Amino acid sequence: MSAALPRVCVIGAGSSGIAGAKGLHERGIPFDCYEASDRVGGNWVFGNRNGMSSAYRDLHINTSRERMEYSDFPMPKSFPDFPHHTHIAQYFDDYVEHFGLREHIQFETRVENARRLEDGLWEVSVAPADGPAQTRLYDAVVVANGHHWNPRWPEPAFPGDFDGEQLHAHHYVDADGWRGKRVVVLGMGNSAMDIAVEASYVAERVFLAARRGAWVIPKYVGGLPLDQVGTRGNRIQRLISNPRVPWRVQQRALEMTFLQNIGDMENYGLPKPDHKLGEAHPTVSGRILDRITHGKITPKPNIAALQGDRIEFADGSVEEADVIVYCTGYKVTFPFFDADFISAPDNDLPLFRRVFHPDVGGVYFLSLLQPLGATMPIAEAQGRWVARHLRGEYHLPSDAELRTDIEREREVMFKRYVASKRHTMQVDFDRYMYELQREIRRGAERAQAAGNRLPIAPRAPAPGPAPARAPAPS
Question: φ, ψ for residue 116 (rounded to 5)?
């Protein structure tokens, strides 16, 4: 039956790409998956040959094993609650082997360009590492190239010059070379916490500079991994992950749990957050507060200026420094799309339920979101959703309804979260998954009413290099 279904190009074989590939594979939809590296796993492969991994030597996940795993392929119980990146990379390798996906992945092959022709077909140019570039035609494209690989540096840059080492968190490997040095870590996200903690065991001094305050959440609450409290905790805690409960009620339950276990951030010398708990992407760390209270890490406000071998902070204090680590996030970019075709200026790309583009047909995005939870189960659900659409088992709402839904989602997101480039695609894990299943059921009813007509007619040729096509008229 696959010959009668659309042919798909999957870009990337990281945790989202392989989940999308599996969704297509189990539904009999023909596809090719292109991966720039020599193995699957993407960001979770330390030292990945594609140069896009941000994993550092001692990286552990900050969502628990049971919340991160795919629904039909549990992680081994021998893994710790918060596994090391080597465990996660092996898990993805095992997933690909178990479901027979490896033969569909072309490794060490970059997608150089993907464009939609006037007749609706996608022309995809790929460049294998060991051969000439090729152009192939597809009916649809699934984008799974990740959004934690293109570093975003401070904007604008801090005034002055610095004599020491400056690096982005993306390039951090370990703190071994910082013994006896004075290190400034800028940021209040997960990477900043990890790097500051690791540096505090070898450096002479470590300063944690904050552009704004954040709520630092521990990995365990009441003896449970944090992200399992909502399903296994007490009655009040279980409100946190119930998608039927209004957000303000959940927020209050979250605040009660946090204050009982941690207290105010100012008690640790950290700046008071300018937002309520749950109104920014969570910072999860089980070690940073301990290192601060032991005097091994000194909180500071934002950097004001660089002064050679010193740094001036916003409170007027000046400290000697040898290293600055900028934990300032990432840019959302699609190097294979022309910028005037599909791009995400300021990390903002409006999509229907974070998957369907409102103006470009036949393109799907996986895990282009920032959840309060793990992305892997979301990517799995999205991949199955895309497969249902390609088989005609799910139909989108009308164009007007689709655009209204996008605006509603954005209005809710921007109202809840702190305005920043980090909060342009934020979702709540449990609520998103709940609403997605409801939308799939509605779309199935629309598809049945339309006779399960294929939304994308299969016209792409069989696998292999496609014949050259003349450029579409401009």
Answer: -95, 120
pTM for this entry: 0.92
Any idea which residue has 């296994």 for tokens? Answer: 232
Q: What is the mean pLDDT of the chain?
A: 92
At residue 130, the 3 state secondary structure works out as coil
Provide CB contacts within 8 A for 279, sequence distance 6+: 416, 417, 418
pLDDT digits (tens, 9 = 90+) for 209-218: 998 999 998 8
Chain mean position to CA 234: 30
- For residue 323, name the pLDDT band (cuts at 50, 70, 90): very high
The Cα 144–Cα 373 span in angstroms is 18
Q: What are phi and psi of 126, to 5 degrees?
A: -120, 150
Return the sign of the alpha-carbon dihedral for residues 145, 97, 70, 436: positive
Q: Which residues of 42-70 are buried (b: 16+ CB within 10 A; e: fewer)?
A: bbbbbebebebbbbbeebebbbbbbbbbb
Comparing CA positions, the residue from 189, 139, 145 lying closest to residue 169 is 189
At residue 108 the predicted structure's pLDDT band, cuts being 50, 70 and 90, is very high
So what's the pLDDT on residue 178?
A: 98
Q: DSSP state, 267? A: G
